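User: Predict the structure for this protein chain, please.
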Amino acid sequence: MNCRPIIYGLRMAFTDTWIMCLLHKEKNTQLLENDAVMRLLRYFAGKTLQSLSSVDIAGYRNHRLRTVGASSIIQDLSLLNQLFEVASSEWEYTIDNPVAKVKRPRPPTERQRVLQKDELEKLLGAAKDSKNSKLYNLYIISITHCHEAWRGCRLKMGAG
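Assistant: Here is the predicted structure, written as structure tokens:
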């Protein structure tokens, strides 16, 4: 007997999908994905799976691009895509996946990160103990140069 409703609201679809999927994920991943699900539900309030179009999904992407980076949007779209995949494969819905038709933003190519004090101390300690006698001095010069360049960038950004 088939008990799935003909029109599946997003809230019900997310609940069914995430009860199944989140049980096997780390606690931090569960929290992050729960936040993303709540954002999607707020944006698409009152919509059903069948009523979502690629225009709706692109609108969501553009709305989020105003406040967050590409990685966050890619994660949100991946969750929504997963929902449509489950609806199609496990619930046997004959439904187009509008997420697949929407261009995703380019992921960032690099990540800038500032070393914490303890990390810097470990790095310089290892460089001092290295067989390469020039490594420590090279790191000191590089760190000083990068710090000054970064500080100059921040000052210019603040002035502009």
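The chain has six helices and no strands.
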